[in-house]
Structures are given as structure tokens and as C-alpha cells.
Inverse folding.
């Protein structure tokens, strides 16, 4: 039934929006979430662009990666370390890794 599929689709994306909103506003405290859009192209993890109004009122764009549940924590740590290293050495085509206010990576 089409209406059931549409309802399921809407509920899935509403839930994802709420999760991202909680990450941006409550956990990372980066500002107010304005927009979320999925960035297609990966085949393992899911990626999202988010538009935020920072506490100072300025617009800021962020990149969020949602890892598969089966991705090992160690693999994520290696990826974060490589991205950080590359940025520190002049690479400017990657989004940086942001820690929570408690200095943790989620």
C-alpha cells in the first residue's frame, strides 16, 4: 500500500532529523539546526550536510557521517586521525572532526 510506504518513509526521515538535531543542538551545542540534506555517493556509511545558525547568529555548514553499526570503533578512530592529520598538513577538502564539549568523539 502506497500510503503505508509513504508514512514509513516520512517516519524514518523524521527520526533521523530529530537525531541530527539532538547532536547539533544538545550534544555538540553548535547552534540551531535549520536544514538537513543527505549527501549521496558513499556505499558503506551515510553522510549528511547540515545548515546551522550558530549562537552568534551566523550561518554555518557542517558535515555529519553516520557509520554502519558494524563499523569498528578502531576504524572510526583511524579515519578521524587521518582526516585531522591531513587538515593539519594543508589539506582543505575534508570536513574537520569536532569533539563534544566534554572533549569526546561520538
Amino acid at each position: 500500500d502506497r500510503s503505508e510506504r509513504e508514512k514509513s518513509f516520512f517516519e524514518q526521515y523524521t527520526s533521523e532529523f530529530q537525531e541530527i538535531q539532538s547532536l547539533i543542538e544538545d550534544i555538540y551545542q553548535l547552534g540551531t539546526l535549520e536544514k538537513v540534506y543527505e549527501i549521496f555517493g558513499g556505499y558503506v556509511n551515510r553522510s549528511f550536510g547540515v545548515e546551522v545558525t550558530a549562537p552568534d547568529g551566523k550561518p554555518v555548514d557542517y558535515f555529519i557521517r553516520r557509520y554502519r553499526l558494524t563499523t569498528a570503533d578502531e576504524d572510526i578512530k583511524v579515519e578521524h586521525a587521518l582526516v585531522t592529520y591531513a587538515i593539519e598538513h594543508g589539506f582543505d577538502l575534508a570536513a574537520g572532526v569536532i569533539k563534544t564539549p566534554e572533549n569526546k568523539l561520538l
Observations:
- The chain has a mean pLDDT of 87.
- Residues 31 and 56 are 8 Å apart (CA to CA).
- The beta strands are 32-39, 46-53, 59-66.
